[in-house]
Amino acid sequence: MRAASPRALRVAALVMPLACGDAGAGASELGTAGASDGAETSAGTNTSPGTSDGTGSTGQAPTVMTVVTFNTGTATGLPHDSVPDDGYGADQAALSDAWYGNGLAWSAFVEDARVFFAALTPDVVVFQEIFWSGLCPDIPPEARPGFVCEGWSTGAPTVAQTVLGPDYQVMCHPGKPDKCAAVRRAFGSFRGCDAELCLEGLEGAAVPGCGSGARVGRAVIELAGGGELTLVNVHGTSGFTADDIACRVGQFEQIFVAGDDGAPLADGARNLVMGDLNTDPGRLAETDASAARLRDFVGPGLPFEFISDVGPEATPTYGGALNIDHVMSDVFTGSCVSPGAPGGPPPVTGAVYFDHLPVICELPL
């Protein structure tokens, strides 16, 4: 029996609180009872290379795939109980709102996120609300100190690249550079993207009448050891007006019914759908038509199932009240955890900054 690698042990330490029963019923059913079925039948043919310690060695295939969805934004007016010397307070929060779209842009928190991901070394990551540093030339000098635009120059790594480091390839949504996906190079690469960063490389389009740019993006990951995986990153429209709900319905239908070319975006042989839905399918399906529409496609006995925790008793990962960040698949199963949730591992940063918790899932291959 092969000894567990350092990376596998780090991931196990994060996932263990959920696997031991801290999760709600949804994750318990899918992450424990369902895991053996997924490992044996759905994902058993995966031959992606490398050990799970991130070295890229081709001696043995990994036994798990670690995936993360993380909305890295901060809410307007979020109270800031900052750690000492991070320098982020009410004035900086106002600048973040005015100039940075409340995306991840404060350098101290970017560094915290970098340290977090360096310890985890996930295989696949999707971001929502991560600041696009190409906007730095438009930001006035007085709004730059402490933010990533301080000292920025053309050609510098984006925030997503900085957070993940050089071992990842990054690709973003058409017209929405604050929404990106990434793959660890030892695990695979994005089809059609030969560069370190493909700014508008994901496939997708706006739902008519729902703003510009694609809030749902699709990529095919060509696994380094052969085979492929279809990845969909979703950031549903926020709000609960009739128009907001209709936009989310259209976005979910892009994923499961028909995208811009008539085919659903999640149309691969093995699909992984992750992101910020901006609705809670476990708590709001009776009052929000978009949550109800999602439950037409995802759930027990349906083509896709939730891997992340879902249901009225699920531990909230957004605002202490809702679960709007999710991981779904038609073949993969596994266990998930959210750093910073009650009873879970430590948060990404010690400051009150992110209004979402990341969702980390370990999926047997």
Which terms summarize this structure?
13 strands, disordered N terminus, seven-stranded mixed beta sheet, 23% helix, six-stranded mixed beta sheet, Deoxyribonuclease I, Chain A, 8 helices, 365 residues, single chain
Report on this structure.
This protein has helices at residues 6-22, 25-33, 35-42, 90-99, 107-120, 159-164, 242-256, 289-294; strands at residues 64-71, 124-128, 168-173, 176-184, 188-190, 197-198, 216-223, 228-235, 271-276, 305-306, 325-329, 335-337, 359-364. The chain contains 8 helices and 13 strands. The protein has 365 residues and is α+β, with helices and mostly antiparallel strands. The chain has a single domain (6-364), classed as Deoxyribonuclease I, Chain A (4-Layer Sandwich), CATH 3.60.10.10. The strands form 2 sheets. The protein has a 7-stranded mixed sheet with strand order 6-3-4-2-1-13-12. It has a 6-stranded mixed sheet with strand order 5-7-8-9-11-10. Mean pLDDT is 85; it is low at 1-58.
